[in-house]
Amino acid sequence: MNDANYPEDLLYHAEHDWVRIDPDGEFATMGITWYAQDSLGEVVFFDAPEVGTMIAADDSYAEIESVKAVSEVIAPMSGEVIEVNSALESDAGVVNDDPYGEGWLVKVRLTAVEEKSGLMDSAAYEALLG
Fold first, then answer.
1. Half-sphere exposure of 121 toward its Cβ, with a 13 Å CA cutoff?
2. Amino acid 126: pLDDT
3. So what's the pLDDT on residue 34?
């Protein structure tokens, strides 16, 4: 695993999830933070939502299983799941190796882009971690 990092182009949820909003504001990619994957340990399974599932900000939309525990994944923003990272079916450990790149979890069509105002930038998220 690489060192802790929290890219400045992302927004963060207090439950250790990130969102990358496309420039047009219509779509977003979501995943878990470096801190979350590090706390989980070796990720072995991602129980993804179905494409078409509506997810709501602050609610669980999936589960990630590691050798240590099963954890809920919390949605940082609301929307419709339009794509699930199918690469995680064969190798969920990509979440550990590259949580902000190849280890993304879902892509969504946002239904409430204004929810981004309730999220943190990287500095605020790092301050939350202490």
1. 3
2. 96
3. 97
Q: Is 70 exposed, middle or buried (0-12, 13-18, 19+ CB in 10 A)?
A: exposed
- Residues listed for the chain: 130
What the chain holds in terms of domains, given with CATH numbers, is 11-129 (2.40.50.100)
Q: Are 43 and 64 in contact (CB under 8 A)?
A: yes
Nearest to 35 by CA among 3, 57, 10: 3
Q: Give the pLDDT mean for 92-110.
A: 97
Residue type, 109: R
Confidence of residue 79 (pLDDT cuts 50, 70, 90): very high
The contacts of residue 26 (CB under 8 Å, 6+ apart) are: 109, 110, 113
Chain centroid offset of residue 62 CA: 10
Q: pLDDT by residue (tens digit) across 103-117? A: 999 999 999 999 999
